[in-house]
Amino acid sequence: MPTILASRQVGNLKGAPKKIRTFVSFNQQRITRCAVKNKANENVAPDQSFGLVARNAELFRALPLYAGGMGVASLLLNRALSGIAPVVDASSSQSRADVLVIVLSAVLLLTGLQWLSLKPRELAAVDLDGTTVNYVDPGLKPNATLLREFEWARNAMFKATRCKSLVLIYKGRTLFHYGYILRGRKPGEAMPGDICNQAMKDGRGNYLANLVLYPGRPEFTSFLPENTQGVVVQPVGDQGVLVAGTDTVRGFSRLDQAWLASLADKLEVSLGDVAMPQTGMGFGGKGSGGGAKAAGGGAGARR
Question: Which InterPro entries does the record match to this protein (predicted)?
Answer without folding.
Answer: CCB2/CCB4, CCB4
